[in-house]
Each structure stands twice: as C-alpha cells, then as structure tokens.
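TASK: fixed-backbone design
INPUT:
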C-alpha cells in the first residue's frame, strides 16, 4: 500500500471512492475509529500502524492530521511528523534507482537519474570512486535540507555541480524522508483552514491527548504565567521582540525546565510563532538549561517589563501555582 502521507485525501475521495466529499469521509465513524487506532500506534510505538484496508488507513491518517489541526496540538503534530519520517526512511529504501524519481514527484520534488562518479578515497594505492546516482536542483535541495538537523544533508557535505546537487541513494532517501516530515506540517496548516470545524475529529484528538498525557514532562501551565510573560507573548505576535525581550521569554521557560512541546503549544496559541518555528524554539530550550531570567527590577530598568515590581518571574509563576492549589487563583 502506498503510504498515506503521499496520497492526497481529495484525490483519494474523488478517484477511489467515487467522489465522496472529504468532509463526509472525515466524519465517517469507521474512519474516526481508524484514526483513533492510528493515533494510538503513532504515539505508543512511534510508527504508522497501517495493518488495515487502504480504504480506512488512508482517510484515517488524514483524519488524525485534521484532528491535530482542530486541536492545535503541537506535540501531536510533531509526533506524527516523526513517525512519518521513520516510515519514509524504510519505505523509500525499498525501491530501485528508476522508481525513486517517480515517487519523489509525489512530494513535489524533481529528481533526475545520474551516472556521475567522483573520487572518494584511496585504498591500497587505488582510487575508490563513489557513484552519485541522482541529482536535484539546488533550490529544491535547500528548501528541504536547510531545515534539517541531519549533517549528511548539509550543503557543505554534498557534491554541487552546475547548479545541481548530486546524491547517492542513502542521501536521497534521507532527503525524501525529510520532505515527508515537513509535508505533515503543510497538510496540518491546510486542514486547519478546510476541516478544523468537523466535530467528529474531537474523538481522535481526545484519544491522542490521553495517550500523550503520559509522555509530557513538566508542562507549562498557561494560567500560572506572570502577566509580563503574557504581555511578551502578545507583543511577539503583534510587533516582534527585541533581543532582551526574547531572552527574558526564553530564559523564563528554560529556567522552568519546561517541556518544549508545551512551550510550543503556548507560542502557537498566542500566535507568537507558527507551529514549525514554535517547535524549533522549543528545541532551543534544551540548549538553554542553566540560563536564568533577569530579576523583575532589572527587567523594569531595561523597560522589558516596566510595570513589574515583584521579586522574580519564577517566584511569580510558582506563587500562581500555590494560589491555585489553595483555590484562590
């Protein structure tokens, strides 16, 4: 079966199901159940459980994406994308040379077959050549590789000739898996506009939420946030933040040892960053452990938070927690 992330749900409903409206398909009880099953597999095992009929697996997968869009659940979106990347690595690795350029077009990528060989290493006095079987235009390559943390996809580690990047099969598979990963985010953004008002999707979102709850560590409580942090989040969406303001915001979350996904959810909710950027910001927090925010009087002196006269952001956050615990918040 072709992976569901390579199949357009609109084309599937039109061509394979005789023109069933997508909204009707995503509301079908059997599709909802398939989506719940897929969501559990993705979250529990980190993989796509496609052991079901394509007529359920394909719309079920897209129902999970639409449910994640409706719930605006950043952790669920990232978990799906990670599972898709793993599945894509295994899927694309199975195919021979001629098939991969055809499959790459399903991701909007134009790959050409190449017969280029380059000197690679010297062994026992003999030059060993490396065969680069594929090439891709530099702009297309950078549109994917520039967002990847995989060093094998960095341009500095690639062979560039006449505006094209030449790849062997393992690197092409990595590139296609990375493209599949980012396709998830594009589909979620599309579905948030088209299908996020379908109430049946809440069943999938609730099932996924229960499965995810056991994985989240130290989630940030939005209702405990100091007023100045809320104001910085609001300002980030409207005018952007200067360096000191951005430092205060990020160092505050880092000092809480905050779960990056819950921080990303807050950034998305306040429209301080789109989902993909919010996840990258969340990842930055892992590198900021040990950084502490300025004291409140220091923030006021910097005009980061001119109205704040409390002892510190962390103290204010946990004072909200204590008031909530006593039922006074």
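OUTPUT:
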């Amino acid at each position: 079966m072709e992976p569901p992330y390579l199949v357009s749900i609109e084309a599937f409903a039109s061509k394979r199901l005789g023109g069933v409206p997508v909204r009707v398909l995503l509301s079908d009880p059997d599709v909802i159940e398939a989506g719940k099953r897929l969501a559990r597999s993705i979250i529990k095992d980190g993989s796509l459980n496609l052991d079901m009929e394509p007529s359920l697996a394909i719309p079920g997968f897209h129902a999970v994406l639409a449910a994640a869009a409706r719930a605006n659940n950043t952790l669920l979106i990232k978990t799906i994308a990670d599972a898709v990347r793993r599945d894509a690595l295994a899927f694309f690795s199975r195919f021979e040379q001629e098939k991969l350029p055809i499959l790459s077009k399903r991701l909007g990528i134009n790959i050409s077959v190449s017969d280029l060989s380059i000197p690679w290493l010297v062994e026992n006095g003999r030059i060993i050549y490396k065969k680069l079987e594929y090439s891709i235009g530099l702009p297309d390559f950078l549109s994917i590789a520039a967002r990847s943390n995989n060093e094998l996809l960095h341009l500095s580690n690639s062979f560039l000739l006449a505006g094209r990047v030449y790849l062997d099969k393992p690197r092409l598979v990595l590139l296609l898996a990375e493209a599949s990963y980012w396709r998830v985010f594009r589909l979620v953004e599309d579905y948030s506009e088209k299908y996020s008002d379908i109430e049946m999707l809440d069943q999938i979102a609730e099932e996924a939420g229960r499965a995810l709850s056991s994985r989240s560590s130290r989630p940030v409580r939005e209702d405990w946030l100091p007023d100045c942090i809320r104001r910085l989040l609001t300002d980030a969406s409207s005018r952007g933040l200067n360096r000191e303001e951005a430092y205060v915001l990020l160092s505050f979350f880092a000092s809480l040892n905050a779960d990056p996904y819950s921080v990303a959810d807050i950034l998305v909710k306040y429209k301080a960053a789109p989902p993909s950027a919010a996840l990258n910001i969340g990842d930055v927090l892992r590198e900021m452990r040990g950084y502490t925010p300025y004291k409140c009087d220091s923030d006021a002196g910097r005009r980061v938070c001119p109205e704040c006269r409390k002892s510190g952001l962390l103290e204010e956050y946990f004072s909200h927690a204590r008031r909530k615990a006593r039922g006074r918040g």
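COMMENT: The chain has three domains: 4-90+182-213, 94-180, 222-325.
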